[in-house]
């Protein structure tokens, strides 16, 4: 009697995923490498601790672990992303049989997953690179799971992965096949980038309420509570309310004692780098990543504050009038962020031939993960409409929403700028929106400059697209054109 699945890596994610699988009726073999010199290893501690009395079988020998799993074997790796995954795969290959399936559930770079799918398949195995979102809590009680890679593996792993996934409010599991190669990890990466954006936007709403409206933490919590009953209903808004109300042991609001220097682990940065590689604007997430970097320069900001703006303009916003405008800025900017994120997914899909289903991706994120929200239903509906929009903001529903939100959004950004209060993500989104809504942009001058100094050529308004011209701007340049590089 062999087990249904094996899981490698008993750190926080692996442990909880194994318990989740077991609770859904699967027999699970678990393995963790043994650290020399440690008396009671990770496996023993787990088996004698949280796993006691459960259908979880611990192994410290990799061969015995592999042999304990029923064919075709399904082995989920929950180890640190990067070289540990490659090392583990090399150790596993000699122990596997053709048709066995490796699942990498860590936060791997999608290009590593592209490579690993090819490598595993060249040896007769199947490889699934799966984003898993939701942290410890999601791993135990239901995560958002984004599998991609060897499609032949999907029918085999589907019952297990869907059983441990979160359920959306309509009961659908938040786990669906994403596409080939590293597409599952690419989608997870964009998810994390969007998470950076959402957090920055909520932080800016908080900052305006705190600094320009002088609201107390409880008053702000009440505003977020109200928003959580409407279109902004989401996990991040909900936890923001709890954070604002939270008091430490001495009875003080903890939020006021937390240092304003944000950390990051790199998935936001990856989203931006990949958007740049694909030639796609992802300004809101980029702003969120850069704001974390700037926040971390606390010392520099403290000395700059007294030197650059010693006396702030005095602006106080009236509560009744301005809460709606902050809502508009937050909701509209969030829409811009998702529109940018999904446009990057579409471009990646076209470039790599992944045939991503964007409606399905939106539905995957409705439960289990950090960015879960009701508004993902509207996004899924927009992408599923008979005439799929060229851009999310051009879907009739969102187009109308943006028109309604614009007056409050721009008033808020203008007011914050006058008050010398930074709202970089609100304003980045607004500038993107204005550029997107401009049939003409000053890029004609950029093209002229490029051609002037580098013979980079330009297209003309009065000829068909695709014909490139070079002007002899100074009368003494040559006619040689530079090779074009267009993303
Ligand atoms: P970590 O990312 O901290 O990884 C620790 C695990 O990797 C341990 O089991 C460790 O074994 C194992 N490991 C390492 Br390190 N090098 C290894 C090697 N060369 N061979 C075999 N095993 C090795 O754990 P985590 O936080 O549970 O995350 C697991 C994965 O899930 C990561 O990719 C992470 O990015 C991703 N993820 C994490 C979260 C989260 O909230 N933590 C959320 C979503 C996704 P040891 O015990 O012997 O050191």
Automatic annotation (TrEMBL):
InterPro entries registered for this protein in UniProt: 6-PGluconate_DH-like_C_sf, 6PGD_dom2, 6PGDH_C, 6PGDH_Gnd/GntZ, 6PGDH_NADP-bd, 6PGdom_BS, NAD(P)-bd_dom_sf, Pgluconate_DH
Domain 6-phosphogluconate dehydrogenase C-terminal: 184-474
Location of the active site: 188, 195
GO MF entries: NADP binding; phosphogluconate dehydrogenase (decarboxylating) activity
Keyword Oxidoreductase appears in the UniProt entry: yes
Substrates-to-products reaction catalysed: 6-phospho-D-gluconate + NADP(+) = D-ribulose 5-phosphate + CO2 + NADPH
Pathway named in the protein's UniProt entry: Carbohydrate degradation; pentose phosphate pathway; D-ribulose 5-phosphate from D-glucose 6-phosphate (oxidative stage): step 3/3
Protein role: Catalyzes the oxidative decarboxylation of 6-phosphogluconate to ribulose 5-phosphate and CO(2), with concomitant reduction of NADP to NADPH.
UniProt name for this protein: 6-phosphogluconate dehydrogenase, decarboxylating
Organism lineage string: Bacteria, Pseudomonadati, Bacteroidota, Bacteroidia, Bacteroidales
